[in-house]
Amino acid sequence: MRASFPNRFLWGAAGSAHQTEGNNVASDFWALENRPGGFLPERSGDACDGYHRWREDLDIVRDLGLNAYRFSVEWARIEPVEGAFSRAELAHYRRVIEGCLERGLTPVVTLHHFTSPLWFQREGGWLAPDATERFRRYVRAVLPILDGVQWVCTINEPNMLAMMANMVKREKREENVAGAMPPPDQAVADALLAAHRATREELADIKSGWTVANQNFEAAEGADAECQEWAWSREDQFLDAAADDDFIGVQAYTRVRIGRDGALPVPENARRTLTGWEFYPAALGNAVRHTAKRLPAVPILVTENGIATADDTERVEYTREALAGLHAAITDGADVRGYLHWSLLDNYEWGSWKPTFGLVHVDRATFTRTVKPSARWLGDVARANTLDPPHR
Length: 392
Description:
By secondary structure, the protein is α/β, with parallel strands linked by helices. The protein has helices at about 15-20, 30-35, 50-65, 75-80, 85-100, 120, 130-140, 160-170, 185-205, 225-240, 280-295, 310-330, 375-385; strands at about 10-15, 70, 105-110, 150-155, 205-215, 215-220, 250, 255-260, 260-265, 300-305, 335-340, 360, 370. It has a single domain (about 10-380), classed as TIM Barrel. Helix 7 packs parallel to helix 9 (about 185-205), helix 11 runs parallel beside helix 12 and helix 12 (about 310-330) runs parallel beside helix 13 (about 375-385). It holds the Pfam family Glyco_hydro_1.
C-alpha cells in the first residue's frame, strides 16, 4: 500500500528573513553579531542575498513541485525607527506574497522570526510595559499586505526565544540542542503570549497560530516526573497556550533525554548531525503525536523539520524516515495539514554558516543557487503526495 498523504496537503520549504535576506542592519541580532568582542563566531552579512533573489527562490520551489513556501517579514525593516513605517519595505513583502500566489504557492507568513528592531530591544524588548502594543502596531501595519494569505505564524518558537533571552544574558553560545538549555525567562514567555493573543485579535479571519520548537523529550528510567517538569517550562506551556488557535506549528529535529538531574548528553556512540544533535528522524512523528495529544482540536502544520548535514544522501535518508513517522501519526488520527522542510537554502544559522540544512546550496561568493538531489526527491514526493513516488 502506498503511504499517501491527505488531499490538499501542503508540501513546501521554509526560511526566515534574517537568515536569508542579508544586511538586516536595523535589527537587534545584527547588532549582536557585529558587536566587537561578541560571542557569535560568524556574522550574517549579505546572507543569501535573498532580499534581491526571492524570485529565483520562488521559481525553485515551484519547479521542484512543492506547493507552499514559508518566509518571514522583517519587523526591523518595516519599522526601523519607532513609529516610522517603511512603505517601500511593506511593498517589497507584498511583492513576495504576490510572487507566491502567481506561482501557485501557498504563502505561510511568519511575523516574527527571532529578530526585533534594535530600538525595541533598547526600549526594554519584550519586558517593556508597552511591548504588546508596540507589536500590535507593527501587525496593524503589515495587515494590509496579507491579502490572499491563509496561514500566518505570529511568533516563531516563543519557547526558544524565551530561552535565548537567558543565553544572551550569559553571553554564551549554546552548542547543545535547545531542549537541554536552561528554562525560559518566564517573564519573556508571558510577554510573548500576550503579543501572540493581541496579534490574533488583529488578524481576525486569517488563520493564525504560533510555532513551537518541539524537543521530543524522553524520560530515562525512573525520571518520568522530572521529564514532565522539564518539558512543561520548555515546551508544553507553549503548546497548551495554543488551545484556541487556528493551528499549531510543529518544529522538530531530534530528541532530548531527561534524567533525574536534567538533560542527558547525547550517547557517545550516537550518530550526530553537523549541529552535534543526535540523528533521530523519529522526533517528527513523536512530536506530532505529543502535540496532537495535548491539542486534539487544533490542526497541525509542520513548519520546520530537517537535518544539518554535508551529505545529501543522509538528508534524504533522514527526511524519508521523518515523513514515515509523520504519515504513521496521521494514519493514527493526527490532523496534519502540511510539511514545510527546513530549509530551502543553506543559510545563516544564528551565528554560524557551518550547519547546512538546505535543499539548495548557495555559493557564499556569487550567491549562485544549486538544487540538491534531496530537493528533487522531496519534489517527487510532493507531486505524488506519497512517500513512494514513481521513478522518473
